[in-house]
Amino acid sequence: MFQFKIKLFSSAKSLETKIDMFHDKIIDSAMTFKKSIGEFLDSGRSEEFKKANKQLRQIEHDADQLRRDIENRLYSQNLIPDLRANVLELVENQDRVINRFDEVSYQFYIERPEIPEIYHARIRNLVEQVTDCVENMSIASRSYFRDLSLVRDYSQKVYYLEHETDITSGHLKTAIFDSDIPLANKLQLTTIIDEIENIADLAEDSVDRLLIFAIKRDI
Amino acid sequence: MDEGLFFLFLSSGLFLGWSLGANDAANLFGTAVGSRMIRFRTAALIASIFVILGAVFAGSGASETLSALGRVNAIAGAFMVALAAALAIYWMSSSGLPVSTSQAIVGAIIGWNFYSGNPTDSNTLVEIVSSWILCPLLSAAVAVLVFWGIKLLMKHLKIHLFRMDSYVRIGLIIIGAFGAYALGANNIANVMGVFVDSSPLHALSIGDIAFSKTQILFFIGGISIAIGIFTYSHKTIRTIGNNLMHMTPIVALIVVFAQSLVLFLFASKSLKLFLDAHGLPSLPLVPVSSSHAVIGAILGIGVAKGGRNINWKIVVKIVFGWFLTPIISAAVCFVSLFFLENVFNLSVYEL
User: How do beta strands B209-211 and B204-206 pair?
Assistant: First the structure.
């Protein structure tokens, strides 16, 4: 019985750590994405940009490993049988957000879009809102595991920030199409803006599901 | 009396014990096993051990109350009382009506009283019937209090989901074991109570521990409950576990705790003596229905959550069962005793 208790608690503790590490990776990916786009806007495909891009790839890889490990432990150790499907979905939704950060940053690396300087501040602002949105998603998700009462507060912040990204990207795309740059550049830029903005949409979708999971978790 | 013949007559009680184990163990470990938090074998082993311990060491209280209702003093009569209760349970279950072993056995004893001309002690009867009403109400009250307490604790302690899962698992095992002990202590009277006065078994000593003849009888009854748990409860557990899946494991834990505590309060002689000695209100020692305690707890939590999702039809069915079960059981017992005495020429009561 004592051994059973120790094993049970050590499994729980180990998984707690993994979940915390996974949430750390979400914050890391958001911060690194912000750094990566900032470097690109400052100095194009520079060494610093490449470094940030590589760092982001590593974070994405680590997060994938953590996700697989969490999934594996949840099922092999038969933990939280009533809620594990929800936890898995939550982790997978958030892993998608980390993947998108990596993909969009890599898109900048491959396409090397020409962004006129007048749009830099607005793009930085959009990236700031998107990363804020994802950080709040991560805090809301962390709260799901420890303090349900905070889930709604942080989810509300995600909704607000996602709405702000819609407005910022809308204004930005309008300004781009009102400008004199070639149509090909306009299309390339709006595609990239959409890709950035979609990350906030993914965060919003994840929070939509999270709120339902939180209701199910409440006793 | 020949012991072989005694065991033949005891078979109806053993059958009741088997059906109790098959049905009521599901109330204790149903959700834990159904949601795969505990393996069936582990649950069955724990439940069996603690049911026997409860029956042997704490089963006398409720049994004395049944004896006060009617002292079934002939073994053939005891056989028929237990069989009538079993038949009433079978018929009512087949008709889809909720049925309690306690009510069936009380009805059968009253049937025996009528047939043998023994007076039914109205005070004991009132005590028993009021406990049937009190049992789900008390269980609901305990469940609501614990539910609010746990909600408050969870709000302040902020326990991680995975750690909470570990606590719930350990809680389900410990409280399930307590519940099995309380079930054995409270419900063994239903299974073996009517055989106490006609039992030819002798007291036994193992080392320094002495077992009375009633304890030996209750041990045999406890084994029949354990056989019911091992051989058939997995089917009931599967149904209960799946039916109650909408309950979170924490709510399931509260329900099992409320049920166990209520059964224990209605069974523990030492607790009653302690409360009486200190001038505190105590409960009568009466066999009550574990299923009714479970339903009471679930309804209590339902009310605490705002009264949604409560199936009031079940409440009406239970109240209907309170009246119908003892009446059917008493009627079956009365008619069967007549056949046993006049067709098989067996003495069903002693003057």
Answer: antiparallel
State the fold for domain A2-217.
Methane Monooxygenase Hydroxylase; Chain G, domain 1 (1.20.58)
Structure tokens at B305: 């959550």
Chain B residues 154-193 with a CB less than 8 Å from chain A: 154-155, 158-163, 165-166, 169-170
Residue that wins the pLDDT comparison between A157 and B198: A157
Q: Where are the domains of chain A?
A: 2-217
Q: Report the amino acid identity of residue A218.
A: D
**If we measure between CA atoms, which residue out of B224, B198, B210, B180 comes closest to residue B67?**
B198
CB distance B65 to B131 below 8 Å: no
Global pTM exceeds 0.90: no
In chain B, what are the domain boundaries? 13-70+121-310
Question: Model ipTM?
Answer: 0.84
Q: Are the Cβ atoms of B163 and A13 closer than 8 angstroms?
A: yes
Element at A51 (helix H, strand E): helix A47-76
| Structure-block tokens of residue A12 | 């729980």
Q: Which amino acid is at B274?
A: F
Contacts of residue A85, defined as CB under 8 A and 6 or more positions apart, other chains included, come to none
